[in-house]
Structure formats: C-alpha cells, structure tokens
Automatic annotation (TrEMBL):
This is AzlD domain-containing protein. InterPro entries: Brnchd-chn_aa_trnsp_AzlD (IPR008407). Keywords: Membrane, Transmembrane, Transmembrane helix. The chain crosses the membrane at residues 37-56, 63-95.
Amino acid sequence: MMLLIIVGMALVTMIPRFVPAYIVDKVNFPNWMNKWLQAIPYAALGALIFPGILTVKPDQPHIGLLGGIVAILLAFLGLNIILVVIGAIATVFLLTTL
C-alpha cells in the first residue's frame, strides 16, 4: 500500500511538470515571445540576488552593488548564466579580501 502511495505522489508531482514542457515543445511562439522567454533566467537571477546584494557586508554596501553591476555587465554581454554568477562572486570575493 505504501508503494502505491509513493508512486501516486510521484505521478501527481511529475505530471504538472511534464505536460507544460511537452506542450511548449510542440508550439511555435512568435519571435517577440521567444526573446522574452530567453530573458527569464536573468530576471530570476536578479530576483534571487537582489535582496542580498546590499547585505553582503552590511557596513560596506558598495561591495554588493559592485558585484551586482559586474553581474549585469556580464549578462548584458550575453555570457552563460553560470559565468555571470561566477563573475559576481569573484568580484565580491576580491573586494572583501582587499
């Protein structure tokens, strides 16, 4: 009985995730929507890091701001999101160790 519950919970969790992915793969979106969808990872990154950007070092908020600016510049250059994050982390690390 427990195994059926686990399988049922797995299906209930997976179906809402797979159905939209399957449908989106079959639909051809207009170019403006594709551009908008490509911006979502960068918007999510901004939403995740912005609350903490000023509190990296509470007594020196400029360090977090400079790290954020580096992230924005790297994203504007079109770098992979992992490289954007690494660049921002490296900037904050260098500024805090100097």
